[in-house]
Amino acid sequence: MESALLVEKTILVVAVFAITLFIAMYSTLVERKVAGFMQARFGPDRAGPFGILQPLCDGGKFFFKEEIIPAGAHKFLFIMGPTVAMFTACISSAVIPWGQELTIGERVIRLQVADINVGVLYMFGVVALGVYGIMIGGWASNNKYSLMGAVRAASQSISYEIGMGLSLIALLMVTGSLSLREIVAQQEGFVNWNIWVQPLGFLIFLVCAFAECNRVPFDLAECETELIGGYNVEYSSMKLAFYMFAEYINMFVSSSLMAALYFGGYNFPFMYDLGLSQNWITIIGVLVFFAKILAFIFFFMWIRWTVPRFRYDQLMNLGWKVLIPLAVVNIVLTGIVTIVKDTYF
Amino acid sequence: MQSLSNRKKVLDQKPLNFWERMYLPAIARGLGITIRHFFKPKATYKYPEVERPYSKNFRGQHSLKRDEAGRERCTACGLCALSCPAEAITMISAERKKGEEHLYREEKYAAVYEINMLRCIFCGLCEEACPKEAIFLDGSHVPPEQLRKDFIYGKDKLVEPRFEYKKEKEITA
């Protein structure tokens, strides 16, 4: 039994890892495609039909680029930077419930790598760790632009983590659970989705997720126009690719987190009214979940090619003077509504 | 002072109202604009497969014309070289020998005719100056070359290819 569990989890881990990397890989292509389409061009379409081999070409090119470690750089930390960024990006997908349960013969397989009862906290912690990759890399480069990018990234992510955490507290007041599996299971069907009870919380979470992922309009850490690339100026070859890749993995993970926390995860409307067997519900649920994730990834890109970058003081104002008070108000409102509902209805 | 063009606009910068300060409506509008562009037709020509059409009055590479009997029209008068503001054209004239009547229309012809494509500004003045309708800028782009000397086009590249003309034999005979 134990070895079967081990095999099951190993397969799940490998599958999740592969899917994460695959989606992150193709996000790079899709991003360029979306950028092109929004700017009246086609985007890359030369490598294979519709350019589907483009990510492979990019990867191959990165491999063959010269590996440069600047003379003044702290060599160990310089290598640590992208490693940490990649590592933290990858481990965050462990607690996301991809689907319900598959029954194969006697065995019931839960489509989640680890159902820990503090899943949301784990997620939060890992996301907070993500900034270390950028900080270490930026500092170790021994370059003023990298350092500025790193400092910006650090202060930005600390500022927005507060807003994010506060918006999550309101959500947890509604769900009453920290386990992601539990939270998703509560949002059965369509009307139970958390977005309907926490629209403001979702908005705050969304904005903070953009900031945590270092995506436009909050990409001040890499800000080409001011910092010529920010924390990754000195990086080349696969180390640079790791940083970029980590960004896309973060995007994927935060998309899946938003889909799971606010948009019902694998739940879809009328899921129990169609007379499907449990296995089919699970399989369709997984597909629905991925559809939601991809929609969010598209939204990330859509925003990127629409909204210009914030100025740094605007970023800080938005984080501290708008999002945090709003999140607090949201908590209070949620509390009042919960009490009123419990007492009078 | 009174504006003569009537196009002057006074910039009025009111402080943003609450709705505008919220950013979100403006962002939503921006998103609407970008998604509309997403579905619009694209301006790109997929070049090797689809070629971009030239405008009707496009001036490209020169060609030295032949007449209806297939003889070179150029008489090496040098007016094109004289009119050229970039001094790109040069030629050496020669006298037509007996038995060459089927090759050159006039008694004098250009034995060497060179245009330096790096100097040429494609203004079309040579075309205008030519009294014999011998030169036209009706080709496509000048292709890239590795060496400067390859941009000096001689008669081999400039003169129109010779077609099989019916009258040719009659003239020689």
UniProtKB/TrEMBL annotation, chain A:
Is-annotated flag, keyword Amino-acid biosynthesis? no
A Pfam family name for this chain? NADHdh
InterPro entries given for it? Answer: NADH_UbQ_OxRdtase_su1/FPO (IPR001694), NADH_UbQ_OxRdtase_su1_CS (IPR018086)
* Entry's localization field: Cell membrane; Membrane
Please provide one cellular component term from the Gene Ontology annotations of this protein. Answer: plasma membrane
Reaction it catalyzes: a quinone + NADH + 5 H(+)(in) = a quinol + NAD(+) + 4 H(+)(out)
Q: Which family does it belong to?
A: Belongs to the complex I subunit 1 family.
> What is the protein named?
NADH-quinone oxidoreductase subunit H
Q: What is its EC number?
A: 7.1.1.-
Please tell me which top-level EC class this enzyme sits in. translocase
General function of this protein: NDH-1 shuttles electrons from NADH, via FMN and iron-sulfur (Fe-S) centers, to quinones in the respiratory chain. The immediate electron acceptor for the enzyme in this species is believed to be ubiquinone. Couples the redox reaction to proton translocation (for every two electrons transferred, four hydrogen ions are translocated across the cytoplasmic membrane), and thus conserves the redox energy in a proton gradient. This subunit may bind ubiquinone.
GO molecular function terms here? NADH dehydrogenase activity; oxidoreductase activity, acting on NAD(P)H, quinone or similar compound as acceptor; quinone binding
One example of a Gene Ontology biological process annotation: aerobic respiration
Q: Which residues cross the membrane?
A: 12-30, 76-99, 119-141, 162-181, 193-211, 248-268, 280-302, 322-340
Subunit relationships: NDH-1 is composed of 14 different subunits. Subunits NuoA, H, J, K, L, M, N constitute the membrane sector of the complex.
Q: How does it sit in the membrane?
A: Multi-pass membrane protein
Keywords carried by this UniProt record: Cell membrane, Membrane, NAD, Quinone, Translocase, Transmembrane, Transmembrane helix, Ubiquinone
Q: Which organism is it from?
A: Parapedobacter koreensis
TrEMBL record, chain B:
Q: What does this protein's record comment on cofactor binding?
A: Binds 2 [4Fe-4S] clusters per subunit.
GO MF terms listed in the record are:
4 iron, 4 sulfur cluster binding; iron ion binding; NADH dehydrogenase (quinone) (non-electrogenic) activity; quinone binding
Signal peptide feature range: none
Q: Where in the cell is it found?
A: Cell membrane
Q: Which reaction does it catalyse?
A: a quinone + NADH + 5 H(+)(in) = a quinol + NAD(+) + 4 H(+)(out)
Domain 4Fe-4S ferredoxin-type stretches: 65-94, 111-140
Q: What is its EC number?
A: 7.1.1.-
What does the record say about its membrane topology? Answer: Peripheral membrane protein
Q: What GO CC terms are in its UniProt record?
A: plasma membrane
User: Which family does this protein fall into?
Assistant: Belongs to the complex I 23 kDa subunit family.
- HAMAP family from the entry? NDH1_NuoI
Q: Which PANTHER family match?
A: NADH DEHYDROGENASE [UBIQUINONE] IRON-SULFUR PROTEIN 8, MITOCHONDRIAL, NADH DEHYDROGENASE UBIQUINONE IRON-SULFUR PROTEIN 8, MITOCHONDRIAL
**Protein name, UniProt field:** NADH-quinone oxidoreductase subunit I
Species the sequence originates in: Parapedobacter koreensis
